From TrEMBL:
Belongs to the fuzzy family. It is found in: Cytoplasm, Cytoskeleton. Residues 168-260 form the FUZ/MON1/HPS1 second Longin domain. Residues 9-127 form the FUZ/MON1/HPS1 first Longin domain. InterPro entries: FUZ/MON1/HPS1_longin_1 (IPR043972), FUZ/MON1/HPS1_longin_2 (IPR043971), FUZ/MON1/HPS1_longin_3 (IPR043970), Fuzzy (IPR026069). One of its GO terms (biological process) is vesicle-mediated transport. This is Uncharacterized protein. One of its GO terms (cellular component) is cytoskeleton. PANTHER family: INTRACELLULAR TRAFFIC PROTEIN-RELATED (PTHR13559), PROTEIN FUZZY HOMOLOG (PTHR13559:SF1). Keywords: Cytoplasm, Cytoskeleton. It comes from Hyalomma excavatum. Residues 297-424 form the FUZ/MON1/HPS1 third Longin domain.
Amino acid sequence: MAGHLAALTADGGIPLLTRKIGDVKPLPFASVGTLNGVHLFSHLRGASLHSTTTKGAKAVWRSYHDSVVLLVVTNNDNSSDEHLNRLLDNVFAAMVMAVGLETLQTIHNVDRLKRELRVCYPVVDHLLCQLDQDACTLGDLTGVTDFILCTESQALQHYLDTFVEEVDSLYGCLLVRGKVAVATKQWMRLTREETTLLAIAARAGTRCISRETPVYLPTSCPLVSNRLVTLQLTQGVELCLLCGPAPSLPVLEEEVCRFWNEAFDLLKSATSVHPRNFPLCSTSDKKTVTLPPLDKNILGFLLINTKKQKSLTSVHPIEDEIGRTKDGKCVSLRKRQEMLRALYKLVSSTYFTTTPATDNTTGVAQNAGSSNHQATEVYMCTETHKNYALRNNDYQLYILFSSSIPTFAMRSVSHKTLKALTTNKVCVL
């Protein structure tokens, strides 16, 4: 993705923040003013301008609380208005996390607000970049929480619940490379937008062993700030806590060293699942985790549990990359992330839509059944790879295949993969 983002005051069009991503020139202030002027003109005439598309670009506007207008101009990369609106919603939520909703609803000092919003730049830049080769997360796009599956989850859950209770908090989670391994019940009751942004905030910016950041929860607590405490337990594993003024950060650092020392082997074992993000074959509490080896033609997949609002992403699903076919080896992990995002954008906005047909649908369309048809399986073939997507009541699965797989085999392989990933009793999404 390449493009520009601007946040402006709704009444005067004064820029609050501007960011760009990709190899593009900075958007001139005159262009920003013109785009905002078009939106304001429409609003004053009683119309709502949401988006416009040119031959090679798309612009989307979104207004919040009649005080802030967000504008994104991007290359036309199959992103629907729904996806770009979610991006803008996430950006505004990141702004709320930094300064609080009341500050954005009633802007008294623009210059001061600009300075205060700088703290959210790392999160906003991460949302715009959309690619994190180390973490490989898609929660900002899908709107559900990214998870990593490990056989140690039950033991780690016990450690987490006990520790959170000791430090007098209800909200805590363990992140393994930016993905949730385990979390407390109260943490999972936060909105998916909040859990996604908190995970990004825990990893964005300068890496350090421990830190605390004041945050507002955009939906759950937008007017009162909390402390987001991030403590690194081992390489790639962070403990995130939401708490009040006490206990202090030095006290938490001491408690972490004392309490989590016994869980070091469990944490180390959990990190070994990355970058595959799910176990292949191991044992836990005398129960065998039998996830059969996936087809060697699978380059990556995205599995979404629509009922629990959880997702599992992997662009390294095969343990031995040497055994992969030649055409599959040529596709880098970063490229696989890009292809997986493009696949989700296209399928979710075109084939797996949930928007009901409008009442004014023409009779021709109704007779054809095109407006009411809900696809359950989709496949696509390109010169470099092949795609397959399927959905049932609780799951959606998006798979990238190497081009060498026979087209007729994709359906059976996809169904076998879905069954393998969702029927295991010990480690399941």
